[in-house]
Amino acid sequence: MELGLLYSGGKDSTLAALLLEDFYDVTLVTGHFGVTDDWEHARAAADAVGFDHERLSLSEAAATEAVDRMVADGFPRNGIQAVHEHALERLAASEFDAIADGTRRDDRVPTVSRAQAQSLEDRHDVDYIAPLSGFGRGAVDRLVDDALDVTVGPSESIPRADYEAELRVLLRDEHGEGAVRDVFPAHDQTYVEGPR
User: Fold this and answer.
1) 39-49 vs 11-20: helix axis angle to the nearest 10?
2) Is the model's pTM score more than 0.90?
3) What is the CATH number of domain 2-195?
């Protein structure tokens, strides 16, 4: 069965791919708005761990709405959640038999509820799989430490192909650098260099 996994090039989505590869023909899929070429980092990470990679064009309107929501809220959660749901819808409407992401049990954002998962499956005749949904961050970190070479650092300095990177650019372009600092809390991201 063909499975498309939303992929950022980070540790969670890479670990999800490794967990699924024995059961599915996994293609790593990076959603992008066309704002930056950051998706190329995800392609490099996918190549490093031996998976096929594709890009998935996301709606510019979804990005604009997400940025407006983040500015209004003063934090990124609802905007990123909306973009993730949009990306899952686009992926579910593609040619894959199953779709997946790297969401963990203890993620604050993005999350996928049972009702959202069932709705995706019913409307698109696709299986939705969240292989890390039973894993907390500590378990994921231990598995990643054993299996992957990972670079960790501040969001602004780590090459990423997740929604945050392009949303930061749009936010900066529309509202200035101060808005990025106001909306996004300082936090670390990961980038997968390859297997250990």
Assistant:
1) 40
2) yes
3) 3.40.50.620
